[in-house]
Design brief:
Blueprint: H1 5-14, E1 23-29, H2 33-36, E2 41-43, E3 50-52, E4 56-62, H3 64-74, E5 79-82, E6 99-105, E7 108-114, H4 122-139, H5 144-147, H6 160-180, H7 185-198, H8 202-212, E8 214-218, E9 224-228, H9 231-235, H10 241-259
Antiparallel strand pairs: 1-4, 2-3, 5-6, 6-7, 8-9
Helix pairs in contact: 1-3, 7-8
């Protein structure tokens, strides 16, 4: 099948890398449900959710809205439909509750499969659709770098060991810069307040703040940016209960670890 230039351009757009602000993090438990329920929970600085912060890994994924935006860029007339319908005209689900779909982009159709991740009711069907679209779009090359755990396009002439050494040196240099970076006034105020409350020196407070009080926020342009909670945040009239609970959990963990 010979593709037109328009088709090639549209399909190539699907393969373009997604920007960081369109990539979300999905927490996945590493233990059984009953074991995870016993672990302490807190607001996660990685995904923003409230869950156990140990025995959890995060998987990067592209959400339904971001994928739809990319499909529209690739082909404003893209479409999808279930692979089959039942006698009442509704999509057919397999014995596991999953659904096969056909995704058509630039006149080319490929299959995808989605399940509800244990959900029920109306949310379950929306979950199946979103999952199936991501799965089918992957067949067109969308977000392949997130599906693949290694280096998808390794240069055969590259020096893997050399690249590792360069990466390690870069990380060490960045860590050194962070260690000698001038602390902000808000950070120093919080360190002082924590030191007074918990009778710790500034180095201990800095370590606590670095490990327990940072969260992933966004700058004025919407780009991911590491932020730190301050006492001013907590004392502000708009500070919500969730923020107080999150910060309280962080300090509680610090006290527990300090006493151990």
């Amino acid at each position: 099948m010979s593709l037109t230039e328009e088709q090639k351009t549209g399909l190539q757009k699907l393969r373009e890398e997604f920007p960081a602000h369109q990539i979300s993090q999905l927490p996945k438990p590493m233990k059984k449900r009953d074991e995870m329920d016993k672990l302490p929970k807190a607001n996660c600085s990685v995904c923003g959710g409230y869950h156990a912060t140990s025995s959890v890994i995060h998987l990067a994924y592209v959400g339904h809205a971001a994928l739809t935006d990319r499909l529209l860029d690739a082909d404003p007339q893209w479409s999808w439909e279930p692979l089959s319908f039942d006698a009442t005209g509704l999509p057919v689900l397999d014995k596991d509750g999953g659904m096969w779909i056909k995704l058509t982009v630039q006149g080319i159709t490929r299959l995808g499969y989605g399940d509800a991740q244990g959900k029920t009711g109306g949310d379950a069907m929306k979950e199946r659709i979103g999952d199936a679209l991501r799965n089918a779009a992957m067949r067109f090359g969308a977000a392949l770098d997130l599906w693949h755990k290694g280096d998808l396009h390794l240069d055969p002439d590259a020096d893997p060991e050399g690249d590792k050494r360069k990466t390690a040196a870069k990380e060490k240099s960045q860590q050194k810069k962070e260690e000698i970076a001038e602390p902000t006034k808000a950070r120093l105020e919080l360190l002082e307040a924590l030191g007074t409350t918990y009778c710790g020196n500034q180095d201990e407070m800095a370590d606590a703040l670095r490990h327990y009080s940072s969260f992933q926020g966004k700058d004025k342009d919407g780009n991911p940016e590491e932020k730190f909670l301050t006492l001013a945040n907590l004392e502000h009239p708009t500070a919500n209960e969730k923020m107080h609970k999150w910060f309280g959990s962080a300090l509680g963990k610090f006290k527990k670890d300090s006493a151990a």
